[in-house]
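Subject: Sanity check before I submit

Could someone independently write out the structure tokens for this chain? I want to compare against mine line by line before I put it in a report. The sequence has 381 residues.
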Amino acid sequence: MTLTFRSSHVQTPSIAPSVSSGSGAYIFAHRRVNRLGRYSALSPVTVSSTFPVTLTPQSYADTNELIRDEFLVSDSGGAIWRIIPRTGSQLGSQTVTTYDVNWVVASIEDNQNLPVNAGDLGLFDADGSETFTMFVHNAGQNIGSLTANILNPANNTIYAELTNLVQISLQGVLVANGTGVYSTANNRVINWGISDSNNTFPLSLPTNAVAKFSIRLVNLPSSGIANPSFDLNFTADKRTATVSFDRNWLNNSLLFSPDIGFGFPILTNQGVSANQVIIKPFSFNFQGTAINNPLDRLFTVDNGDRKVVVNRLGEISILQASAALTTNQIELVSFTISGSTVSNINYKVNFRPLIVRNRVVTSGTPGDFIRLNSSGNIVVS
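---
Independent answer below. Compare away.
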């Protein structure tokens, strides 16, 4: 999968501009220009029309990013497009009286993807009042989450000194074409820290969709910070995939395949502080959809009886044992936690071996069962 970054972004119009003229030899299209002067791809084209003409664009909601509605015309059926110049207002309808063969020939590909650096975003003020916008474009397969991390540019490692100082807000998601209205179902604001689970934004980001984030500094110490610059890194997790029918993998079961990183157990509190647990990498067959957790995820948990729950979007939650589940949730494992002690671990779903190497059963009789023991080894019982 491929992530690209934009300091500004506008959607490609999803409908052709409306025209006021009659039939003729020209076709028209509309594209949007963002606040950096970069432009979207072309809208669908109009039916053949003529001059004079009044062109009206599809409206756009995100007026912070849109600086111009740009109309283009072709007298060659779309082989060559020319930009119709604008004077006065740069947004909304435009009336054009005649065609000019000297109008500038346009490149029509979306050119909004470009490297994003500090110069594009600007400089943060010490009082934390500056907020900057960044767009993350998914140019690959569907994504189920984005994990943000702050890196020290001096050595490209996690910048622990900036824990709770950088606030990252997911504003919403734009699909490829449309009216600038964001899907805000997965809005989330984090004060970045070293915990992976806290830095992850669960969201549905289809191919060619764009997630809009804002970034600002908060809680700055009066003494300042040692290195005033940082790199922002996003990691995409493809949380869901279709389970292939040629695999003998039962619904509602966890994949056991240490060869590809899915082992046992998936829940541990080894190496973490009190009231914390780690969910290890796993893959779960949720009624034909593979829910993938490719990373260790750290959760802070209150004392008591708890359960690990996953939903169809690949989102992992730890809930009270008594919490009711929706039809889109399945409980994977229950446990009890008291400070640094985790007990009563009880898996609610089966493990299903798909790839088993270097596991040899040397004894047994017909009718015996093969199972996994607590170490993840195959034994006969």
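---
OP: Matches mine. For the report I'm noting this point. Residues 242-380 form one domain.
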